[in-house]
Each structure stands twice: as C-alpha cells, then as structure tokens.
Amino acid sequence: MGTFAQQLINGISLGSVYALIAVGYSLVYSILLFSNFAHGGFIVIGGYTCYYALRSMGNNIWVGGFLALLATGIAAALTERIAYRPIRERTDIKLYLLIASLGMSIVIENLFVVTIGGRFRALPPVIPTNPVRLFGITTTSAFDLLSMVVAVIFLTGLQLFIKKSKWGLAIRAAACDLRTAGLMGVNVNMLISIVFFVAGVLAAVGGIFLSVRYTLYPQLGAITIKAFVAAVVGGLGSLPGAVVGSLILGLAEMLTAGFISSQLRDLVVFSLLVITLLVKPTGLFGKEPLEKV
Predict the structure, then answer these.
(1) Domain 2-124+137-279 has CATH 1.10.472
(2) Which of 94, 132, 252, 291 has a 20 to 30 A CA-CA distance from 81?
(3) Long-range contacts (CB closer than 8 Å, 24 or more residues apart) made by 73-78
C-alpha cells in the first residue's frame, strides 16, 4: 500500500509537469490550429537560462527562475514573430506552420549543441530532493511535492488570466474564431505574441523541473512528445483536457514503472495515444476540429 501511494504521488508530480507543457501546446493550438513542436526547444531554453543564472548569481533560485521564465517567454514570442508570422500572412495552410515548427525545434536544439556542447549538466541543488513523510505514512520526495504545488500555482494563475483579464477574453474569442475576433477590434498579432509568451513561460517552469529530474542536455525537449500525447488524450485546444490528460499519462507511466516494468512505460504512453485516436480522436474534452493538421 505504501509503494502504491508513493507511485501515485510520483505520477501526479510528473503529470503536473507534463500539464505545464501540454497547456502550452493547447493554448497555441486553440488559436492557430497547429501543433507547435518547437515547444520542446523552449523547455531547453528555460533549463539552460536557469542553469547559467544560478551559476553566475550565487544559486538564487528566485532570480534564476525569473530570468528563465522571462527569457523563454521572449524567445517563444520571437519564434512566432520570425518563423510563423510571415507564413501566416502569406497562407492559411496550417501544414506549413507545422513544418516550420519542426524546423525551429531542430534549430534550437542544434544551437545549444554547437554553442554549449552536448554533455549532461546538473542544476545546482537549489530545489530540495530530500525524502519527506506525508501523512505519517508515505515517504516521498520534497521535489515531487514542490513540483505539484508550483504547477497548481501557475495553472491557477493561467486560469485566472484567461477568465478575468481583457486579453484572456480576447484569447477565448480568438479560440472560437480568430478572424472574427480580428474584425471585432482585437489586435491579432499582439494576441498571438501574448499566447506564445505565456506558453513559453509555462514551458520554462516545466524545463526547470525536468532538468532537476532528468539532468539538463540539448535533447531534453524531446520529452515534450509525451506532453503532446497528453494534450491529444485530453483534447487538443482544451486547457482542462490538457491537465487531465497529463495526469492520466503521469500516473500510467509511474504505475507501470513501479509495478510492471520501467521498460514498458513508453509502450503504455503511446498505446494510450493510439487507443484515444481509435476510440475518440478529439480526446476527452476536445471538440470537432475545423481543420486537421
């Protein structure tokens, strides 16, 4: 029973990190109807920015984390401005945006390989990983509890931003019909930049926690394919669906690793993707897409 509870907490912790990344996927998809595979590069940018900020500023996680969030948000907005906006202004075919995002993912990864190198790096021990007892029964890691709390804070903040702010209202309108929102006076280019900035910030948070969990290297962004699977399971374009799908995926992964075999965790994850596409292609909370990419 204790092992099950520990794996449950580990699964929720991993799922909460996936949720931060999957929500970024869903935010972009809800507006532009394409899957931004450069999102993995934003995770790498966040991880490396935090790493070098911690090394140069005395292991201050508050300063390092803030700089990582800011740098990644700006990098995401610039990626949209440089790589995606010229394509959007020339054509409505979303496949070209998808291809451009794949190219940007490779570009970002190789920029780090060429300039910094491909070796593995560990973040300074600024995030506690010591074991703690939960409810006097379960021994778990302080890191798992902290990642869950931070994910809840950021996801709650995003929900408040979407529901309460003027730009949040514009995002909801654009998710229904981007062209009509533009005709009603919404600055579409600014709106899309804000969406990419927010998605970049969430990716940076996920990148910091993934760097602690798995160490930091230029190919770390490849793990976002699982967050993409979570977004598909929950329903692309649905923020609650991205969160639920991420928790399902995190739990499935950790319970499989803990009670069956760690070698089967990826098999279970991608089997869930195939089953979802066969049974309910729109995902748990998704709507019928206007255009399929």
Answers:
(1) no
(2) 291
(3) 73/197, 73/198, 73/200, 73/201, 73/204, 74/197, 74/200, 75/42, 75/45, 75/200, 76/42, 76/196, 76/197, 76/199, 76/200, 76/203, 77/193, 77/194, 77/196, 77/197, 77/200
